[in-house]
Hints:
By secondary structure, the chain is of the alpha/beta class. 46% of the residues lie in helices and 10% in strands. It folds into 4 domains: 7-103 and 313-430 and 471-505, Glucose-6-phosphate isomerase like protein, domain 1 (Rossmann fold, 3-Layer(aba) Sandwich), CATH 3.40.50; 106-295, Glucose-6-phosphate isomerase like protein, domain 1 (Rossmann fold); 440-470, no CATH class; 514-552. Strand 3, helix 8 (165-173) and strand 4 (183-187) form a beta-alpha-beta unit. The N and C termini lie far apart (55 Å). The relative contact order is 0.14. One of its GO terms (biological process) is glycolytic process.
Amino acid sequence: MTSNHLATELPSWSKLQQLHDTKGAKYDLRQAFKADPKRFEKYSEQFKGTKTDASLLVDYSKNLIDDEVLKTLLDLAREAKVEEQRDAMYAGVKVNSSEGRSVLHIALRDLPEKFKSKAEGVDEVKPELEHIKAFSDAVRSGSHKGYSGKQIKSIVNIGIGGSNLGPLMVTQALKPYAKKDLEAHYVSNIDGTHLAEALRACDPETTVFIIASKTFTTQETITNANSARDWFLKTAKDESHISKHFVALSTNVKEATAFGIDKANMFKFWDWVGGRYSLWSAIGLSIAIVIGYENFEQLLLGAHELDVHFKEAPLEKNIPVLLATIGIWYNNFFDAQSYAQLPYDQYMHRFAAYFQQASMESLGKGVTKNGKRVDYQTGEVLWGEPGTDGQHAFYQLIHQGTKLIPCDFIAPIETQNPLGKHHDILLSNFFAQPEALAFGKTAEEAKGELSAQDQSNDFLIQSKIFTGNRPTNSILAQKITPATLGALIALYEHKIAVQGFIWNVNAYDQFGVELGKVLAKKILPALEAGDPNKPGDHDSSTSGLISYYLKNRKGH
Ligand SMILES: O=P(O)(O)OC[C@H]1O[C@@H](O)[C@@H](O)[C@@H](O)[C@@H]1O
């Protein structure tokens, strides 16, 4: 299923522009809620797993939308053939056209084999899960021992980008499910500090290194893995001990073998698993070790149930489609420059960082799948921090700044750590912030709060006005369990897919990460040679910086 369109050529695009100009820009949420007491019921959806405890309520009523806008947004989705593109993706069509690959992270969690996606390797998903189960059980139970016979106490996942962010985010978000006497470290940065700090907390006799790299050629990961091996061998001495302490997660068996990893210690996945969609694959091995295989399976099943929802719910009730199209409404018609994800759950502190990669690497594209340069904005700039920390840092700008920043607020109904009044206080903030953003404070109200003397102080009155009409979605999860987290991640993955379908960009390649890597490889020899007078052939800025570095570095 390919589509030729520029999004701006779709009939509903110009209608949306008109709707924005005639009413969207002036949309008043106070009036909208007054006019329709059932607005919340109308513009909210519940998602409940049938075989898991996944449970989400998504309230999108505090958006600058009405029935006509919503209908037109969904028309746009239909004109862009979102349903057909989704079905093609699920079936295993090579929708990643630039790389000639299917996009089948949904097949990794299709444990009930509902979608029957077709691609080489789909039938190996379950055996590979068995492999993950066996290894994670062995590490957790203590039956997998280190070379000196001791039980494993630490795991170090060495990987970057998609081979790091997913497992890191999930193991943090699901920390209450973690095995208590097992430390998990995640090393990604080439900055030696990252590895050095992790190793300081580890003992070579009781540490397993998980080398996670789809390509197994990524400079940071291979360099870190080699340094970890050197560190290990300094104590272990004998290379034959490596097999008990190093495993590889990769699609590249050849490179992993060349690194010295035993076939038995390789966990494979397939080229139809994109790095930023890979936590469901062998890349999730550290998740299974930390929270146990049964919980890992719940994560997969929760995501699968959301996959079913995305596949089967009519667009009007389809949560990823609603969030994606409402996002396009602001990104393309209100010129919103960014979008914030604000989890009111301390354990979810890496959630926005995770979706920064998933969304921005997927949708940061400037050409359509047919190679036409787009004449509209694509990927949202995604950012965020957990509430309430964010409130005391950047919310000022969201409330009263000059930029429109649509936000998603996410919170669990049940906390993992009941502690006095804490959760009610947290949730009171979760409810209050979207309310303040939507309804603001008028000049009259601001004036009413001032002393008689200050009521003529126009600066004070103006400064205390909250314009309101700042759009938000509020997502209430019953509890951040493995299945609910799986569903939540899948929800946002599919939001990305839908936006990619509508903008007609390939959300599954990442050529933008290449150029800098190539240039770094060219620069490295000059740094190793160390002659400040020979920085290489560059512009004066780059040469000047390299020379300055070489002149001033010490202790090399
Ligand atoms: O898993 P490997 O192959 O090491 O890639 C790690 C990361 O590299 C980056 O440059 C991107 O391409 C990411 O999508 C990818 O997740």
